[in-house]
Amino acid sequence: xxxxxxxxxxxxxxxxxxxxxxxxxxxxxxxxxxxxxxxxxxxxxxxxxxxxxxxxxxxxxxxxxxxxxxxxxxxxxxxxxxxxxxxxxxxxxxxxxxxxxxxxxxxxxxxxxxxxxxxxxxxxxxxxxxxxxxxxxxxxxxxxxxxxxxxxxxxxxxxxxxxxxxxxxxxxxxxxxxxxxxxxxxxxxxxxxxxxxxxxxxxxxxxxxxxxxxxxxxxxxxxxxxxxxxxxxxxxxxxxxxxxxxxxxxxxxxxxxxxxxxxxxxxxxxxxxxxxxxxxxxxxxxxxxxxxxxxxxxxxxxxxxxxxxxxxxxxxxxxxxxxxxxxxxxxxxxxxxxxxxxxxxxxxxxxxxxxxxxxxxxxxxxxxxxxxxxxxxxxxxxxxxxxxxxxxxxxxxxxxxxxxxxxxxxxxxxxxxxxxxxxxxxxxxxxxxxxxxxxxxxxxxxxxxxxxxxxxxxxxxxxxxxxxxxxxxxxxxxxxxxxxxxxxxxxxxxxxxxxxxxxxxxxxxxxxxxxxxxxxxxxxxxxxxxxxxxxxxxxxxxxxxxxxxxxxxxxx
Length: 556
Known about the structure:
It is built from 24 helices and no strands. The chain is mainly alpha-helical.
């Protein structure tokens, strides 16, 4: 009996451990991407950051689409046919996906180059100068190079994701980000400090780093997984039968990828609508172009970098959901399938809540440490609003990925279309009424719509009981109250972070992070929340368990 319980616990942890493994590398890339902003801002100048945000917004939209469209379909089919030991099908999917992603990337690149002028005019304020418009066009030209390599890279990652090789998925993320930062800061320093050029050249180098880093990551995966590819080719050659012909596999790939692609397009309606219509909505609300450009850079770059930290869970968990849930579904193991659904929702909520609450409770302090005292009051206010949407934007994609993996694609697409309509319909009125925060509120309403309807659909089809999960979330909220008390005590003893040298401010902010997290874990552990969610055995405490998981994640 005890042995069976341990085996069940190991199965329950498999999705969580796989998700944490893939999330680990993404978390590192988010931190690296966060800390380079301080020296980069000093080199480029705050006034030039808006041009980086324009390119970053377009790039991020394409990146999200390329990461969750065809690659997820590739991962699903690879996991399915690898389970059936149909290695010829797995090899064919790899070759087919490579050709499709290259074609997709080329078309994306050409589309941006041809449409650069209307795109630049649409994403910028009406009163923008000719020079600023040309700079916007320049960054779009440069970022178009990455539109070819990024989809190809995400397709290759999708293949190894289907093989449950989360280590290469994670490591390639780190290598891509490290090479990106090295190129970005190197070009910025060389152009501004050595050649004494305008800070806009630092932005040009930063935008170009997306192409360079994705190309380096592709080369790394190719050389580090040559043996895996060779072994798969040998297994395919030794296989006597071919259960699926190429035409059937292409149809199956498209039948999986089209819903995923539409789902991602609708799921990214938040960022698509924000980057496309924010300037126009602010113009209509009476804001001048200077305010609009500052708020654009905050919402889509400086604050976006901070709120993207909790979002590392989205990519990591979504990557793990595809192979693990697909395997359970194909085996017909509905009990394990329901457990994976609960595991994903509860663990993401448990990890995401404190991260987002940090941004909400001490937003001004975090913004001051990261970007200095010039605009930290407004930046902290934007960050607090963004933290609310960040949490919903972390959990909602996980629920969406679960719906897609459990074959509720048609319902999910309908719900996401409704969410997109909610976002679009409320966007302009809320900005007129609430100012810039209306864009964030409309995103929160969109996420709530999609998440709520998908949870109901999953419950209807698989009879998942959410009541214990709701009780645990209420108890997690008690952990947030513990964090608030810690923050109050730290402020009372004089650790105010702002209005002092940045290194000292960083040191004080670290106290908020460490003691706040300890308070959250300690309070929730009193209710046995982490022990229940992560299936910790009775003879271990949560801190011992987390150290063990960390060691396993690092080894993997």
